[in-house]
Design brief:
6-stranded parallel β-sheet, 4-stranded mixed β-sheet, alpha/beta, globular
Length: 485
Amino acid sequence: MSGTFLGMPGFPPGVSPQVTFPQAAERAVRDERLRGNLRHATRTIREKRARAVAELADWAELRAAAKAVKDRTLRELDRHLVRLEEKVTAAGGTVHWAADAAEANRIVTALVRAAGAREVVKVKSMATQEIGLNEALAEAGIRAYETDLAELIVQLGDDRPSHLLVPAIHRNRGEIREVFARRMADWGRPAPDGLTDAPAELAEAARLHLREKFLRAEVAVSGANFMIAETGTLVVVESEGNGRMCLTLPRTLISVVGIEKVLPTWQDLEIFLQLLPRSSTAERMNPYTSLWTGTHADGPDGDGPEDFHLVLLDNGRTDALADEVGRQTLRCIRCSACLNVCPVYERAGGHAYGSVYPGPIGAVLTPQLRGTRDPLDASLPFASSLCGACYEVCPVAIDIPEVLVHLRERVAGQRGHRLERAAMAAATYVLDRPALLRAAERAAARTRRLHPRRLPGPGRAWTDTRELPAVPPEPFRDWWRRNRT
């Protein structure tokens, strides 16, 4: 495995994390219930998103502006991060720098212990999933409670997230009811007797279960959608209100955020608060936008944390930044629009990607952060049809197909593909010699009845779903000479 940790593999029990994407996807597409859940959810989300985006006449201009802001920020990332640290410190917070997942987990664990807590409540956070924080805290005897509804479903079901925005997208209402009834009592308040799969009842069961945790929590852990270098302000957008509870009630707040999430100014934030809700939840404005700067200054009865810590996470991001083609991946604002339009994700689901980041963005981000030496990571850039739908919907204009091809070239250059290189060398030799090409064409035409419909060996994967094209009975050169001379 690579030295960069990136979340726990999402493969089901008994399946090795060394399984490549094609192998994991082959299992996933046989699950008819999973495919049905994914098909219904992704089609619903993308249709709603299309309507929401169509309402804005300047969507293309907003998209271009977001791309420009992100690119400009990434070019001067070091300067903006230093300014952010200065502003957070001036507002009463403490900034910690984590080079990798292990260091970030050590920092957070030490902070929780220093606060005298044995449990924490969590806002939905891709960064903490990326570093495996829940597992690290559990090893230290600290229990982490997920408070986002979908994350709660995943946690209670001993499951793994399969979508950036809707982690439990692979579950239907009946499955969720069964998880609540079976596991809620193990984590706190049990599910009500007679719980049905009605959405209102499921939401109420989660609300009652989480309320007691919000009220007693001394420490909360969050991520952030954006960080504003100009003021040291962090921003979390969400739909349920659980984030607001975590960010305001506990005495200590620890935020783990990737270094690429910084924006230079408040004015820049305005662009992204228009793009993100419509691209993710298809809303004109997200229901809850929480912003905080350092610690509150109103005594013990004030709103917000008395002790605030910001953990700035690298974990492979500077390696991605050094790649001139791949660095555009760091523009990502985790909206999940690319997942909802991807024909590969819709059929294979998120677990097949073996990382906390699934779908098209995961196929480029995971190998960027973790490298391509591992068989799983090396297979991810090939988990795409290169149809380009992901680029069309990306609100920050990440050219995912371009990065996929770039990473495929890297994989081909560093390992394997010997047969492919040999075939290309042989083809080059023949195509450079007209007489030899003519002889090869005639030989292929004369032996056409002996040609197999499927390739042997490694080439069989290509012909598992398609037949080889039939060779014509006469080469085109011979036909032209006979009919046009």
